[in-house]
Protein 1
Amino acid sequence: MNRRDALLALLALGVGPGLVEAQPGPARLAFIGSGSAEGGVANVAALRDGLRENALAEGRDYVLDLFWAEGHYERFPTLLEAALGRRPAIILVATIASARAAQQAT
């Protein structure tokens, strides 16, 4: 399974059921990256490509909020607090450290 398949599986598990009960409008997705926006271009592009390949359009079906730790893992709790303030339907994480921070925040 490649990264795109893994992200799509997470997305399907997290957003699919929520869309039925969600408020009207696009689902908000929060991506917490451990690096920088420049370094994460390929991963974000793969995520967007995978969503598009599954007939999901940004702006219509989802809004993608990106948060970057810039290599400073101690920033994860603050980034997650900011992400949760936007009330995402799903949080996508890139590292075990960010997954643990997400577990603690939620």
Protein 2
Amino acid sequence: MKTLRYALFVSLCSLVSFATEPLKIGHRLEPFVDHHLIDRLEGTSLRLHAPHYAGVALPFNDAWDRDASGYATILEDNGLYRLYYRGGPRDMSAGKSEGSTSYFCYAESRDGITWVKPKLGLVEFEGSKENNILLAPAPKEDPWTQSISPFLDSRPGVPADERYKAIGGQWPQGLYVLVSPDGIKWRKWRDKPVFKDGAFDSQNVAFWSEAEQCYVLYFRVFTNWTDYSAKNFRVDGFRSISRTTSSDLINWSAPQRMTFGNTPLEQLYTNHTRPYFRAPHIYLTMPMRLVPGRRFLTDAEMDTQKLGKGFRGISGHNHNIPNEVSDTVLMTSRGGTRYDRTFMEAFVRPGLDKGNWVSRNGVPATGLIRTGPNEMSLYVGQNYVQPTAHLGRYTMRLDGFASVHADYAGGEMVTKPFVVEGEQLALNFSTSAAGGLRVEVQTGAGEPIPGYTLEECPVVVGDSVERTVAWSTRTDLIPLRGQAVRLRFVMRDADLFALRIQPSR
């Protein structure tokens, strides 16, 4: 029956001309985090892969930290990992806001595993500059040091003393741009905010997009609130995300609210949107998802275990908030105003630690980094508003967010037509000892190409982040360059994480 269905599929494809032009994927890595490259799944599915907890990466345990520290960003620069976060003293007496007690802090690492808080000698705290503080809180009338998220500006022609940039600020004043020559000594780039049309009561992020050739800014909005010039701040509707673009970080396009496809609205508290470092044409975003009104811990459990106590002392928040649960989800974008919510389930669950079932847990650091030959790490805020507050490290294989998955019974995946511009097909995949996969190259209409048929492809078995595919008489795709082809994967007990058509080496 499966063979008959496939024959009918090929016959139909041969009768129908392409409704759209074949995809141009060039030599780019294409992770299977969405359906962009997939035309048909039969007996296979896209599966989300949860990262693995690797322990505490950075405790928030200094006097100038607070148990509500967070809004971290991680950058890599010439082998040095830089971690920026919002800190502040634990003693937040009544009437003090987060803004008036938030410090911009710094840590660094050579491997992404062991982090050091260097003594920078820049800002005095309780009579000493022996700390890792970069900036003290600015006055609330000019809140340019609030919720800062740095990025390395890769736009060609950027002055050396402005290579590091950051977005900071809050409503109603707006967002400011900060610059630095070295990632340590920061200054305000312009006296006035560069963008005002948003709520901003979260971490707002920006970067230079090589794919779109512009600066892109993603920021907090509310679905039922459009007049951000109003004097009174209010939560109205769902917390959501908008974006705007600019060629110069000064003049911005009219903001547009991001869409999520045919999925229900959820309270997306943060966004953390960044290009994936192995495939920068794909933006990854891992929002903290808040679920208002849902609770796991009783008030008695919270009181007994002293969970969430610090949060109740922060001005502007009520006592019920700590009992609202939250987690981390995964979304992707290929530019423009659409996020793909391919997976609605959680990417990082709160887990067995009850301290992570207090509201506002699950806020990840903006940015992923490579921490091993086949490994990358992400960092997630945990034990929020507790004495044990920290960033936890999670690991996954390179490109290992999701995969085309086949169980033991087996199945197939056929790609959309794309133009061959390289020489070899390289796969990131994993199989069991009994499983495997084979690849057939077809014409754009779905006809097997001699020399690249399924029967001529030995079964590929093993586990590799980059392995080239060979057929019995062909080891490359050189004869097919410039042609539109499809790839048919026949799989059993296997996962396909990514593919790339490699150029000549």
